[in-house]
Amino acid sequence: MAIAPSLQGASAAPVNVAPTVIVGNDRGGFIRARLKELREIRDSGQRVEIRGKVCFSTCTMYLGADDVCISPKTTFGFHGPAMAIGRMTQAQFDYTSRVIASHYPPSIAQWYMAEGRTRITGFYRMKGEQLIRLGIESCPAQISPR
């Protein structure tokens, strides 16, 4: 005779709970690699918390994640697309700009297409507090361990 296992004292594990992605200091990288990472984050339903001192270049594409929050103290750096080797044609520049902008909330995407992408050297810098005023969620304050 089979006996059903007892559930007494067992705790149910959360279903479909993905670990949070904590973004520290991120100076960007290649667009293709970031797009792959963003797809994986979206597909797994992960939350993104941008808490580092800086989030530059492709790191800013996290702003369009489904569940994202930012630190008001983080400095974000935006610039137009560029190739590691050689120059982009105008068509490549426009296409890549649209890809980047598609990973921003609408208010930031509009600014990026009108102004942000025009900076090719250096960055347009914005503090998290500015982006929070534009509607990005502020991360809850972290409690420091004792």
**Overall outline:** globular
Low-confidence stretches: 1-15
Count of DSSP H/I helices = 4
What's the N-to-C terminus distance?
Answer: 54 Å
Summarize the structure.
By secondary structure, this protein is of the alpha/beta class. The protein has four helices and six strands, in the order βαββββααβα.
Keywords:
three-stranded mixed beta sheet, alpha/beta, 28% helix, 146 residues, 14% strand, three-stranded parallel beta sheet
Commentary on this structure:
α2 packs antiparallel against α3. This protein has a three-stranded parallel beta sheet, with no helix packed on it. A three-stranded mixed beta sheet has the order 3-5-6. It is 28% helix and 14% strand. It is globular and about 45 Å long. The chain is built from four helices and six strands; from the N terminus they run βαββββααβα. Mean pLDDT is 84; it is low at 1-15. By secondary structure, the chain is α/β, with parallel strands linked by helices. The N and C termini lie far apart (54 Å).
List the helices and strands and how they pair.
Elements: E1 21-23, H1 31-44, E2 48-50, E3 54-56, E4 68-70, E5 75-78, H2 90-101, H3 106-114, E6 124-127, H4 128-133
Parallel strand pairs: 1-2, 2-4, 3-5
Antiparallel strand pairs: 5-6
